[in-house]
Amino acid sequence: MRERVLSGMRPTGALHLGHYHGALKNWVQLQHQYDCFFVVADWHALTTADNRAAHLEHHVYDMVVDWLAAGVDPDKATLFIQSRLPEHAELFTLLAMSTPLSWLERTPAYKDRLSQGQDAESTSYGFLGYPLLQAADILVYRAGWVPVGEDQAPHVELTREVARRFNHLYGQDGRSAPLVEPQLLLTDTARLPGLDGQKMSKSLGNSIAMRDEPEAVRDKVRRMPTDPQRVHRTDAGEPSRCPVWPLHQLYTAEDERQALAQGCRTAGIGCLDCKQPLIEAIVREQAPWRERAQAVLDNPRQVHWMVELGCERARTVARQTLKEVREVMGLSYG
Asked: CA-CA distance, 180 to 140, in Å (whole number)?
């Protein structure tokens, strides 16, 4: 059997290029090497008030369409929705009985929220506890590996600590430890800049959606700010000062990039001339995504069926884990 990988995303609707290069690109590769479980973490979307969406169901399936468009294959990976499996909530509750409160209070997200002026009373129990729910998401499937970037490594380490403590408490008297400590699978997660040079984010309004039409891509890239010191077309510029340049470093071949840099520094080309190859590269990358997405959208029941099958696959694994957890905790009656 192949080793298992667990990863997921909160449903926020259609995904952007940052999601693809930060996660989905790796998922597509991992599904050929591991037994991959990819979860739509819809409960996690409710942990902060700004993410409570009236159209959550639409966001869920819109995101799954983007997964499929990127090349995630439901025949190779298990795609499922967190809230469809109450086993996540049960394991979360059982793990809460042995997880110290201080472990959750020290997580970066919680400390950042308090440092931003949010007092403890305005922070929900769900937000405080979401790292433990995330741990339950991983542990209920006995995932051996969790692919993350370095900034997410503390979440995996917390999951390992939670599993280690639980196994120490309940894996005694000759009983086998029911929870698997997952390993960190550091992946290449490109930090894609947005249209304003900051990290690409839908909330900042600086993103290019994976399925944006070519006309939308052209308009967005053409409006991007450039080197602030290049005021006139005849002024020489410096690529390192330009918010467009990091996108060129990802999308443009080295030889063409050097030619563009030379043209910028000598004022041999204008900013729109520099942006055109980038526009073409993004549109070219998006073409197969739009084609695959359209095939799914033409048969909308197909994506629901794919997710239904994934939920059933996931449920089989989750139920077995909970059965063993209940047994070692003395909760198997009758």
From this structure: 9
187 alpha-carbon distance from chain centroid = 12
pLDDT tens per residue across span 136-185:
999 999 999 999 877 788 889 999 999 999 999 998 766 677 899 999 99
CB 149 within 8 A of CB 22: yes
Q: Residue 192 above 90 pLDDT?
A: no
* HSE of 5, CA atoms in CB hemisphere, 13 A: 25
- Residue 265 to residue 246: CA distance in whole angstroms: 16
> Which two tokens mark 35?
């037994």
DSSP 8-state secondary structure symbol assigned to residue 180: P
- Residue 5, strand partner residues: 36, 145
How far apart are the C-alpha atoms of 9 and 51, rounded to whole Å?
Answer: 13
132-152 in b/e form (b: 16+ CB < 10 A) is bbbbbbbbbbbbbbbbbeeeb
Q: What is the largest CA-CA distance in the chain?
A: 84
Pairing of strands 77-81, 145-148: unpaired
Among candidates 154, 156, 149, which has minimal Cα distance to 199?
Answer: 149
Question: Which amino acid, 20?
Answer: Y
Distance between CA 208 and CA 15 in Å, rounded? 9
pLDDT at 329 over 80: yes
pLDDT in tens, 193-235: 899 988 898 888 899 999 999 999 999 999 999 999 999 999 9
| Nearest by Cα to 91 from 332, 331, 326, 334 | 326
Encoded tokens for 42: 């819809």
The two structure tokens encoding residue 242: 């330009």
CB 220 within 8 A of CB 212: yes
89: its two tokens: 């909530």
The rounded distance, in Å, linking the Cα atoms of 56 and 54 is: 6
More confident residue, 223 or 55: 223
